[in-house]
Design goal:
This protein is α/β, with parallel strands linked by helices and 237 residues long. It has 2 domains: 2-177, Aminopeptidase (3-Layer(aba) Sandwich); 187-237, no CATH class. It contains 7 helices and 7 strands, in the order αααβββαββαβαβα. A hairpin with a 2-residue loop joins β4 (100-102) and β5. The radius of gyration is 23 Å and the shape is elongated. The model has no long low-confidence stretch (mean pLDDT 90). It binds zinc ion.
């Protein structure tokens, strides 16, 4: 442990510099030019490291490319390190929120979610290579380019890689520097409920109660759907 701590402390300046570089390249979802620049950057940085790996750039129509690295091959099932390289911030946000360190905090457009952690994923690979440590199983890194818009093309890729993996670390940021061990899901619904409104005090008999029954049924449906969704078919150890 001490060796790793010393290693990463010695690397602090260069890691901060890498984070600064990648945050300076804005890459909101759908911005294929920004995505290409970010993927170029990750590919070049990965190729700097001398270790056994292969790199793949997977095209996603109108979105850019996903970035995949398979490192330290062996017959064992890999550890999957998951991240995304798209951000929610429109182009030009960096003019309003410049990349900077203030009072020991690093600010920038998309730095928290989640470019800093994408750099850390890469630095983990570098640490294994430079310290000549053999990870207990292969490492697969998948950085998707469409997570912020619901992973229309990345989802299938994530699911396929997760199925092959022994375990998966989703490296999304967490509050307070903690390790995230669970993720929430979100869903959107449009409810159409039919009925006849009436004044509750003056003419309650005119109201069509069907409205409330439909609403209650919808509510039950939503609850049972959410319960089913809370038991995903793919589980991580
Ligand atoms: Zn994120």
């Amino acid at each position: 442990m001490k060796m790793l701590l010393d290693y990463f402390q010695a690397k602090q300046t260069s890691i901060l510099d890498s984070i600064r570089q990648i945050v300076e390249i804005e890459s909101p979802s759908y911005d294929t030019a920004g995505n290409a620049a970010v993927v170029d950057w990750f590919e070049a940085k990965t190729r700097e490291i001398s270790f056994d790996f292969e790199v793949e750039r997977i095209a996603a129509e109108n979105l850019g490319e996903h970035f995949l690295v398979r490192a330290f091959p062996s017959s064992k099932k890999p550890t999957l390190l998951l991240g995304h390289i798209d951000t929610v911030h429109p182009l030009g946000t960096k003019e309003k929120n410049p990349t900077r360190i203030e009072a020991e905090k690093f600010y920038g457009s998309g730095i928290f979610d989640m470019k800093a952690n994408c750099v850390l994923i890469l630095e983990v690979l570098r640490a294994f290579a430079e310290l000549k440590l053999q990870p207990p199983r292969p490492i697969t890194i998948l950085l998707s380019c469409d997570e912020e818009i619901g992973s229309p093309t990345g989802r299938a890729l994530v699911e396929a890689e997760a199925r092959e993996a022994e375990l998966c670390l989703v490296c999304e940021p967490s509050a307070g520097g903690k390790v995230k061990t669970g993720r929430k899901g979100t869903a959107g619904y449009t409810l159409r409920v039919h009925g006849v409104p009436a004044h509750a005090g003056l003419e309650p008999e005119k109201a069509r109660r069907q409205f409330w029954k439909s609403l209650a049924k919808s509510n039950n449906f939503i609850r049972s759907t959410i319960r089913k969704m809370a038991q995903p078919s793919i589980s991580a150890k």
